[in-house]
Design goal:
The complex is a heterodimer.
Chain A: H1 2-26, E1 39-41, E2 49-51, H2 66-70, E3 76-82, E4 94-102, H3 111-115, E5 121-123, E6 138-139, H4 141-145, E7 152-154
Chain B: E1 4-9, E2 12-17, H1 22-28, E3 52-57, E4 60-65, E5 76-78, H2 82-97, H3 113-121, E6 139-140, E7 145-147, H4 157-164, E8 171-174, E9 181-184, H5 197-201, E10 207-209, E11 222-227, E12 236-242, E13 245-251, H6 264-268, E14 283-285, E15 292-294, H7 297-315, E16 320-324, H8 330-344, E17 349-351, H9 369-372, E18 375-379, H10 383-386, H11 388-400, E19 404-409, E20 420-424, H12 430-451, H13 475-483, E21 487-491, H14 493-496, H15 498-515, E22 521-523, H16 530-535, E23 542-543, E24 547-548, H17 552-562, H18 574-581, E25 584-588, H19 596-603, E26 607-612, H20 617-620, E27 624-627, E28 637-639, E29 644-647, H21 661-674, E30 676-678, E31 697-699, H22 713-723, H23 732-735, E32 740-741, E33 770-773, H24 790-793, E34 800-803, H25 805-810, E35 818-823, E36 826-834, E37 842-844, H26 853-856, E38 866-871
Parallel strand pairs in B: 1-5, 16-17, 16-25, 18-19, 18-21, 19-20, 21-22, 25-26, 26-27, 30-31, 33-37, 34-36
Antiparallel strand pairs in B: 1-2, 3-4, 3-5, 6-7, 7-10, 8-9, 11-12, 12-13, 14-15, 14-27, 23-24, 28-29, 29-32, 33-38, 34-37, 35-36, 35-38
Classes of the chains: A alpha+beta, B alpha/beta.
Chain lengths: 157, 872
């Protein structure tokens, strides 16, 4: 009697296990064919820094250096300068003449984003940071202002 | 001892002198009352209402401003009640109604009292949703300062500073009520020489520094306490560094020296430190002798000792000379003279206005004595241009302490407007007038002593009889001197140069002695460390410690310290060396080639070494150029005009491979010593080796110089203490941030007796020509000015000659025309100006203008020069 019971239970366990397999067999696969296919990231995913512009083309950054102060690893260096009133770089008196980010130091904590009073610096979705030399990880203002379109899809939160 | 008053602040009993303001009494009790308009150095006003506190009286408590109420016995003050807190919150709310949210782009942000106090005492939320008032933003009120009217909270600090300290009320309040703005008067920018202080005392970012604008955020700066090296006052300042650049200079408090003020030159002239034209490597002249090429330190120093050694061997040690500047630190000055005296074996060392000027060794008794004097005598010295912070102290004494000013100067300087007397003299004519005054005072004193029954004290200040005959033009000056109870005598290089200057100084010291104040006579040099350079013996005829080179005992003492005694014969003076009296010249920080004649003389030298920050006219002629550091990049001590030895620590990284002046000299001496062998009569094997590194010079057998071992500036100062008796008690660590005055007790040299003076009046220039008058200008084209920020460079005038308007009319000349000014020494083309402060018959050409016009005309020769002025 107990022997029959044991065989029966074993059969049920096997059927349950194969049930999982069968269910997965029928659902669509999770594997992403990266890099042919974009990776999916959440909207708040934090990767490479970007500097934003206003719609009229002026830079948002005013060179206040608060991101530099907030940065826990000293990865940001900003030098400010005075706008030429005829050809302003940003609205107001002050703009960032130099804006360097050292990605080797950055821990992608997002404190710079939080500190920014004009929402100029944001951590974008571009996580493809691999480069062939160290200099490639030292981002300058031009690179930050003109980021490439990240190879991602944004998934719902 | 003033009366003391005891009061209670928040249950803390505190005893303070009567007359103290409640806000200061609370600070003494350790209780902070927030303030905006109140300032310890300005008169109370009560404009911002931030310091409202509760005064408890018999009929309940009332609110009043702690910054205007003076303490009284038994007063009870409450600073942290609910009512006070509510009032502070409300007051900050009112102040912030129209204060723009500029904090991220405001240079004050991070060190802003309004930010700090809003965080500490504010409500935390704003009730105000309406639009803020729009006013003028970021517009210049001078070349150096920007005003933002929106940020201004109307505390009046800038208005009060310019009025109370500068006596130049150039900023005022305009409009009424909420429309009130701070502004300058139309068409009149702020031009006070210490205007930058209003940036420091502004409690918000309404007044900002144009030179440092947007170049820093306060929290990013590395701050180093240092001293200014642009004039002999030695104001205390702070170097603010970021990424190895000197971004800003602000004043630092030292109540004995500069209170908390700084002049505009000291504050704004600092970009030369990071200038791209700074010398970054040593330069040597290439084989063809045409161009300078970069070299290593090793090569450059070897070239120097090799050539200097060769010239010394062929022509004797006296063919070598050294010209230094009195801008360098005590350490550099000491090692410079030690290099020449102990290693080269010549006394040929000097600086401009060095041995040519008869200076009192002790300087000013104390800057604080200015406020305690009832008569300040200024002879050939214009503090407004030469030392603006000293000028502040003198103006304060004249306006607040009732001091009189006796100005003896060829030009009616700005300070001559204060009560007292102005005695116009011709350059070189000071001796005649001073001698007349001294003789009259001596006669009066003799008559006084004869008339009085009890013998008067040696410094008898009994009333002097004024029956003595005095020339009519000297009468006002005589009356002032005879009435003075605490006079102070200050003279500058312009009255003390050359033979006539020596007479003038003797006459002035006779005058001081006749009044019984021989110890209140001070010489103030032109360059920052003039006092220190003299203490260090950077003079052709004076050893360290103001001892003459002819003093055998001092030479022996120094011989024990150095291993070799300094030579006994006085060396050549600056003028003699710059005119080509030597074959090889070592120039440290000076620029004798600024004039054409000076450059021609240097052309004839066999060998010229220049140690400087920039490729000056002199450095362009040099065979070897050694890059030196500025005051901000090297440790060193400087001695100011009141003998205060102050430390100027290294604040930033040196530019390129440049090294401290003293370190270069120490390295050079090490190589010099290594290249020498004592001549024992044998042929040295080293000479067979042609390699210049192995080449050794033979010197005569005799005492060998001791090795030079100076790892740090402190090691040099330790040796200075052994060589210069008044410095013996100074300790590097004890100098601290405020410096230490060396005591004159180690060097009693105050003139005590009257020396007869034989002078003749100076003849005025013949009709149709003018007597040349020169002197300092704050914004001259001095050695560092061309490398300052653009805003600073703009302040230097184009080279000009100024005549009295009456002379201009008589000679039928018009202002603004180009004129040729000719003297016996040269001619220059200058722009003509009219200036009522210039006396009739004289022509004013400031020193150190571009192209050195005054120097070319022979202004610094210490003798009257007549010039002709003709239209081009």
């Amino acid at each position: 009697m107990s022997y029959v019971n044991e065989v029966f239970r074993g059969a049920v366990a096997i059927a349950q296990a194969f049930g999982v397999t069968l269910k997965a067999l029928l659902s669509s696969p999770l594997t992403v064919e990266y890099p042919e296919q974009p990776a999916a990231v959440y909207p708040r995913f934090r990767a490479r820094h970007e500097l934003r512009r206003y719609e009229n083309g002026l830079e948002r950054c005013i060179g206040c250096m608060l991101c530099e102060a907030a940065c826990p690893t000293g990865a940001i260096h900003v030098e400010a300068a005075e706008n030429d009133p005829e050809h302003p770089t940003s609205p107001g008196e002050r703009y960032a003449k130099v804006y360097d980010v050292n990605l080797m130091r950055c821990v992608f904590c997002g404190d710079c984003e939080t500190a920014c009073p004009v929402e100029a610096v944001v951590l974008g979705h571009d996580f493809e940071l691999a480069v062939y030399n160290r200099a490639g990880l030292l981002l300058q203002k031009e690179q930050l202002l003109n980021p490439k379109a990240p190879n991602v899809v944004v998934r719902a939160e | 001892m003033p009366d003391l008053v005891t009061l209670t602040v928040d249950d803390v009993k505190v005893t303070v002198p009567a007359g103290t303001l409640v806000v200061d009494a609370a600070k003494a009790a350790g209780i902070e009352i927030p303030i905006f308009c109140s300032h310890p150095k300005l008169d109370p006003l009560g404009a911002c209402r931030m310091c409202l506190v509760e005064f408890v009286g018999p009929r309940g408590s009332k609110l009043d401003t702690a910054c205007t109420v003076r303490v009284s016995e038994g007063m009870t003050v409450r600073t942290s009640t609910e009512q006070v807190k509510a009032v502070r919150e409300a007051n900050l709310g009112f102040i912030l109604i129209n204060h723009p949210l500029d904090c991220p782009i405001c240079d004050k942000g991070g060190e802003c009292p309004l930010q700090d106090q809003t965080m500490a005492y504010g409500a935390g939320v704003s009730q105000f949703v309406e639009a803020k008032r729009q006013k003028q933003k970021h517009y210049p009120i001078s070349d150096l300062i920007l005003l933002d009217q929106e940020r201004c909270i109307l505390c009046w600090r800038c208005i009060r500073y310019l009025d109370e300290w500068e006596d130049k009320p150039q900023i005022g309040l305009f409009e009424r009520g909420g429309e009130t703005v701070i502004d300058t008067f139309p068409g009149q920018p702020v031009d006070a020489a210490t205007s930058g202080n209003i940036i420091d005392i502004c409690p918000v970012g309404a007044l900002t520094n144009r030179v440092s604008r947007f170049r820093f955020r306060p929290w990013e700066l590395k701050k180093t306490p240092s001293v200014c090296t642009l004039c002999p006052v030695g104001c205390n300042l702070r170097l603010d560094e970021r990424v190895h650049e000197l971004r800003r200079i602000v004043a630092r408090e030292n109540l004995a020296v500069n209170d908390e003020w700084l002049c505009d030159k000291g504050r704004f002239l600092h970009q030369y430190v990071d200038h791209p034209e700074r010398l970054r490597t040593p330069l040597v002249r290439d084989a063809a002798g045409e161009a300078l090429r970069p070299a290593t330190w090793d090569e450059a120093l070897h070239r120097v000792i090799e050539k200097l050694g060769d010239i010394a061997d062929t022509n004797g040690a006296n063919a070598l000379g050294g010209i230094a500047s009195a801008r360098v630190s005590n350490e550099a000055a000491y090692l410079f003279q030690k290099f020449f005296r102990a290693l080269v074996g010549a006394n040929n060392i000097d600086f401009a206005d060095g041995s040519a000027v008869k200076a009192q060794p002790t300087g000013l008794s104390a800057i604080a004595d200015i406020a305690k004097s009832d008569l300040i005598v200024l002879v050939g010295f214009d503090p407004s241009e030469a030392a603006p912070v000293l000028d502040l102290h003198i103006k304060r004494a004249a306006r607040r302490a009732g001091a009189k000013l006796l100005v003896i100067n060829p030009r009616r300087i700005a300070l001559a407007k204060y009560p007292g007397a102005y005695l116009p003299v011709l350059p070189g004519g000071e001796a005649w007038d001073l001698n007349g005054l001294a003789t009259a005072l001596q006669a009066a004193r003799a008559a006084n002593q004869a008339g009085s029954k009890p013998a008067p004290a040696p410094t008898g200040k009994a009333k002097l009889e004024t029956k003595v005959a005095v020339m009519a033009e000297l009468r006002p000056a005589y009356d002032l001197l005879a009435a003075a109870k605490a006079p102070l005598f200050i003279y500058g290089p312009d009255a003390a140069r050359g033979q006539l200057g020596k007479l003038a100084v003797t006459a002035l010291s006779n005058l001081a002695v006749a009044l019984g104040f021989g110890d209140r006579l001070a010489y103030v040099g032109a360059e920052a460390n003039s006092q220190g350079a003299r203490d260090m013996g950077l003079l052709s005829d004076t050893l360290p410690g103001h001892q003459p080179v002819t003093d055998a005992a001092v030479r022996e003492r120094l011989g024990k310290l150095w291993g070799v005694q300094p030579p006994a014969e006085p060396g050549q003076s600056y003028a003699a060396m710059a005119a080509g009296g030597v074959k090889a010249l070592y120039v440290m920080g000076a620029n004798p080639a600024a004039t054409v004649a000076g450059a021609e003389a240097l052309h004839k030298l066999d060998f010229l070494v220049v140690q400087d920050l920039f490729l000056t006219e002199t450095a362009q002629l040099a065979d070897v150029v050694l890059p030196a550091t500025s005051f901000a990049e090297a440790d060193g001590t400087y001695t100011n005009l009141e003998r205060r030895v102050q430390r100027g620590p290294q604040g930033i990284k040196p530019a390129g491979e440049s090294q401290a002046d003293w370190a270069i000299l120490a390295a050079l001496a090490e190589k010099w010593l290594a290249s020498q062998t004592v001549d024992t009569g044998e042929v040295s094997k080293a000479i067979e080796q042609p390699d210049w590194k192995k080449k050794r010079r033979k010197i005569k057998a005799g005492p060998a110089p001791k090795p030079w071992n100076y790892p740090t500036a402190q090691a040099v100062l330790d040796e200075i203490g052994k060589a210069v008796p008044p410095y013996a008690s100074l300790r590097w660590d004890a100098l601290g941030e405020a410096g230490v005055q060396w005591s004159t007790s180690a060097l009693v040299r105050a003139p005590r007796r009257v020396e007869p003076v034989d002078v003749a009046p100076i003849a005025a220039a013949p009709a149709g020509s003018f007597t040349l008058v020169s002197g300092p200008l704050l914004w001259d084209n001095g050695p560092l000015m061309p490398y300052g920020a653009e805003q600073v460079r703009k302040l230097t005038p184009t080279p000009f000659v100024a005549l009295n308007p009456a002379d201009l009319t008589m000679a039928a000349l018009a202002e603004g025309r180009q004129v040729t000014v000719t003297s016996a020494y040269g001619n220059v083309t200058l722009t003509l100006k009219a200036d009522a402060s210039v006396q009739p018959g004289t022509a004013w050409v400031p020193a150190n203008l571009a192209g050195a016009p005054a120097e070319t005309l022979g202004a610094v020769r210490g003798e009257p020069v007549s010039v002709a002025v003709k239209l081009v």
